[in-house]
Amino acid sequence: MKLVINGRTHTISEHVTTVSELLYHLGVDRNICIVEINGEIPKKGDYLTTSVEDGDCVEIVHFVGGG
């Protein structure tokens, strides 16, 4: 399946079907990011059930701390 992630097209395994699986596949810690899919921001509690599908546009924003 092809997804546009942060403006770049990526080919992702068809076995990745949810936001949670996508983050795991990409090696992203779900606790330090926000995900937007096609302009919608799902709640973190819904990452296990929110689907990703071929052609979706995904934005992943990481939190950065510092001082």
From TrEMBL:
Signal peptide: none annotated. This is Thiamine biosynthesis protein ThiS. It comes from the Bacteria. InterPro entries: Beta-grasp_dom_sf (IPR012675), Mopterin_synth/thiamin_S_b (IPR016155), Thi_S (IPR010035), ThiS/MoaD-like (IPR003749). Pfam families: ThiS.
